[in-house]
Amino acid sequence: MESNKTFTMIKPDAVANGHIGAILDKIIDNGFKIIALKYTALSAEKAGEFYSVHKGRPFYNALVSFMSSGPIIAAILEKENAIEDYRKLIGATDPTKAEPGTIRNLFAKSIDANAVHGSDSDENAAIEGNFFFSAFERF
Ligand code: CMP
Fold first, then answer.
1. Domain that holds residue 116
2. Average pLDDT over residues 115-130
3. C-alpha separations of 105 from 8, 28, 89, 136 in Å
4. Hey, which residues does 126 pair with through a beta bridge?
5. Domain tally for the chain?
């Protein structure tokens, strides 16, 4: 299992609010190499599949509906200690609890519209990266 990769999405709120460039700049400035990148959108079915680990939780339907509400950016990022470092960079899931200067502190509005997703383990980073990217889309 690789430990130097993570997967991220810039969510529909941050895309709609014009934050793609600022968020990608932060990612690059913090030493992550973008090895795959895509501007796309999730259908409700695909969003449900991506977040199937949360099925049954009270926020699942709202999450699926929000994540299929507009285009997103999907990316695979490479850096030593990628999972932990990226979670530090994005801040707490609830932006009201995110440290100043983190991506969610700067760009997120609520726990649903929280600007970005970041993988929580090496295993999930591999699963989530494979959900969006083929071998021919990674460099
Ligand atoms: P994300 O890191 O993409 O993973 C699951 C998402 O569910 C999370 O970010 C939040 O946007 C959303 N969510 C909404 N409510 C909650 C909650 N109570 N706990 C965790 N995630 C939540």
1. 2-137
2. 98
3. 16, 18, 10, 34
4. none
5. 1
Counting Cβ atoms within 10 Å, is residue 91 exposed (0-12), middle (13-18) or buried (19+)? buried
What's the rounded mean pLDDT across residues 110-136? 97
- Is the whole-model pTM more than 0.70? yes
Cβ of 62: how many Cβ atoms within 10 Å?
A: 11
The values of phi and psi at residue 70, to 5°, are 180, 175
Rounded Cα distance, 45 and 109, in Å: 25
Residue 1 CA to ligand 1 centre (angstroms): 25
Per the residue annotation, which of 108, 117, 125, 132 is the catalytic one?
117
Asked if residue 133 has pLDDT above 90, the reply is: yes
Best mutation site among 69, 83, 93, 102 for ligand 1 pocket (most ligand atoms within 8 Å of CB): 93
3-class DSSP state for residue 88? helix
The stretch 25-48 carries a mean pLDDT of 98
The confidence score (pLDDT) of residue 23 equals 99
Write the CATH number for 71: 3.30.70.141
Catalytic residue at 54? no
**Reduced to 3 states, what is the DSSP secondary structure of residue 64?**
helix
Q: pLDDT value at position 2?
A: 82
